[in-house]
Amino acid sequence: MKTINLITSFKCLSVGLLFSGAAALAADKNPPVKFIKEGVWRGEFTVAETKVPFNFELKGRDAEHAVFTLINGSRRDNFHVKQIGKDSVFIKMNTYDAALVAKVQEDGTLTGEYRSLVPGFRGNSLPFTAEYGKTYRFVEPGKDVAPTANLTGKWELKVYSKDQVPNKIAVLKQTGNTLTGVIMQVTGDSRELEGTVQGDEFELSGFTGPSPKIYKGKINADGTLSGEIGSGIYDNTKFDAVKDDKAELPDPYKLTYLKEGYKKLDFTFPDLNGKPVSLSDDKYKGKVTIIEIVGTWCPNCTDQTVFLSPWFNKNHNRGVEAIAIGFEQKDSLEYAKYTLGKLKEKYNIQYDIVFGGLADKKLVSQKLPALNKFVAFPTTIIIDRKGDVREIYTGYTGTVTGKYYQDYEKKFNKLLDELIAEPVPASAANVTGNDNKELKGK
């Protein structure tokens, strides 16, 4: 009996070991899915030899329910997360053709890279790491150094570059060691920046989806600033800054204008289905028409779209049309159909979108020869009911610029109200397909 029991016990043990070994082997072949831990994180990009910090928050325990939020001062930008492996995630930067690709390590940290997805630029990337639970940006709590100055106010930045670069203006606010603000230039603004002042040194960074940026430098003995701008995947430039509450950028309403002898704008570009669209089409006759020259790679263009799309949807039936001319990072209608299509979908764009070609300022000038020059993406051109150009605005100042944005919005609405109220030309009143009530702005 003892021998039989011993044999039985041995068989049971062998079977148990066999099943446990098979289970271990199966577990090795099918490791559990690792996902980003819910909560606040601190990341760091490596740009050349510079560390560029950023903060984000993850809500949701799996990719299906997760929302990835970039944090910059009071600004929040949300993105979807895709699981691409047992321990890896892919976070597309919404309408920008770039993504964060990251791996969840054994210790819970993230390692990865910010990667360009543009065909022909896919070698461009920035490595980053991220740690869970760290809410600070530049300096750990308890390690602050008393600032030697308060940088609150308006600063004029003189930028040094091999190419001629217009001056910039920084509007900063400092509370203790905390520094926030925005950098403005003729093309638009930097979006909200967040940073710190430590002793006689300052740093500001921003990452909202497009390439991360960092502004850092030193407070000089005479109260001026000297520093460097790090522009993500691209390049770095030096600057000096002087505090000047009266500093202003060139007038954005006077930078771009029609050449002498021109009153109208003329173009024909394909829409996203390849159908030619022209201002001479019946659809635009007798209508107030807004032309936006944009690119999906351009953050200020996105912000302008966030402003224009809901405005258009609200005012379209007053006799207004709009056309967005997209110039993209690849000279391909098929590629533009993808990028501009994403823009259209995300921001509920109900006006026409056409493809202008490669994102190049000289090319824009060639394709729109009535313009004296093309200065910046975005550029807004407003055309009256007679088809005459009434205003051209270079760049865009977003909500973070405060009074600058409020002044722009007020002037935009005032001009549009005036143009909508103007009479419809007799030549357009009976155009087939035009609704007279729309034309008259009722």
Automatic annotation (TrEMBL):
Q: What positions belong to coiled-coil segments?
A: none
Keywords assigned: Signal
Q: Which organism is it from?
A: Mucilaginibacter dorajii
Ranges where the Thioredoxin domain occurs: 258-417
Q: What is this protein called?
A: Thioredoxin domain-containing protein
Which InterPro entries does the UniProt record give?
Answer: Redoxin, Thioredoxin-like_sf, Thioredoxin_domain, Thioredoxin_ResA/DsbE_sf
Signal peptide residue numbers: 1-26
